[in-house]
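Blinded run. Sample ID left blank on purpose so nobody reads anything into the name before looking at the predicted structure. Input follows.
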Amino acid sequence: MKRTMLPKRLLKLVTMSRRQIWYELRANLWFSSIIYAVLALMFTGLSYWLDFHLQLHTYVPAFYETSYQLTHILVSTLISGILTLNAFTFNSTLVVLTTFSGQFSPRLLLSFVSDKRTQHVIGIFNACFLYVLASFFLITENTQMYVAVPAFTVLAALVTLGTFVYFINHAVKWMQVPNMTNYMKLESKRTILRTLLKDLEPYRTKDPRYSREELPDKDSVVIHSEETGFIQIFDYKRLIKKARQDDVTIKLEKRIGDFVTEGLPLMRLWSDKEKKIKEEKYRKLVHMGPKKTEMQDLEFGVNKLTEVAIKAIGNDDPNTANNAIYQLTDLLISISKVTSFTPYLTDTNNQLRIIIKDESFDYYLYAAFSQISTYAVKDPYLTANLLEAVTILSRSIAPENHQCCWDYAASIAWRYNDSFTYNYNSQRFFSSLKGIAEVTGNEEAYEKLSRQIQEKQASAPSVNTSTS
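Blinded prediction complete.
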């Protein structure tokens, strides 16, 4: 069957790498539920074989035998019990999560659903109910004594009860703010950093055989988008393979997460040969959708924690905002260690094949903290937390990224537009700023900036008095 004859959703899975397919499957509950449903049907088949074909009751003591009437009552009773327990658990959890996601971030729902413990719990609930339901239709009056069906049914009820307790404990722990922000950070690390480490970083180089300056725009073939949506995935591995086959160089006009409308350029291709380029082959290696995903989008993973911090500030919850800021810091450190921030991707012969949109560490630094700093201009506690986070960041990243840390810290400090209520706030403010200056080698700039801030602080009361 040709790929063009496949449904659009299935075609998307066919053209993805295995890690990308695994991410898509884990983003919903169907995958784990189907696996557990298959296991439940296998246990049902095993019960049928033991009781109807092997006649297990003839090999065990009479103590383990159960009559048809008792088995029927047991199974029919546990069906309604397990179903009621499932409905109560899921309904209560969804109510709590909906409220929690509205308070902090709607992306919490997807993060909770993608958690492997949540997936296993829901799969176990469904499997136990499916087994008991299937067993109910298997038992007949023709077989008067049962062993496997009642034993497995009681076991399913006990597993469901234990899973219920575990699920409540898991949901309560997950919804605690420190755990929640930590889970979101770890999820971003797994889905973003591991994917980029294997799909993108092996092809990065800072010294290709030639650079983009040697590629004139007038000689390029422009490939335009045929649909509207967010760019979710660039299949870099297949793009490089295809570019090598056609002996072309690709320049991506958009980055992951950009919104593209129909007709906008996606990429430019250069070729030394007069071979006709099949644009559709390249267009299929760019996956688009109605929303952003964090499969390859570094910024999306950062923005999740940023949104939690902003919502917490709006709800007058400084501790949650502070926790999100420090988790953002750890995520930025991981990004700086994995990504080399070079736009050149080459094949195995170091031949330039793809030029991606320029990116740098300061881009992600500003994406993480710029919106939060907007709310910190009159909050000494939040400003000091931001400066302390940048201090930790500057001490943990490579020296080439130090200057952008100082520039950003200086802009945060200068934009602070209120007096310090307590001396502790002032000491923490200048201590963090000085620490960044010492790490980044900007001691002279710190002395000048601190004097300017102190002068502004000294002049603020007189300005406010005259105004009043």
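Unblinding after everyone has recorded impressions. The chain is about 65% helix and 10% strand.
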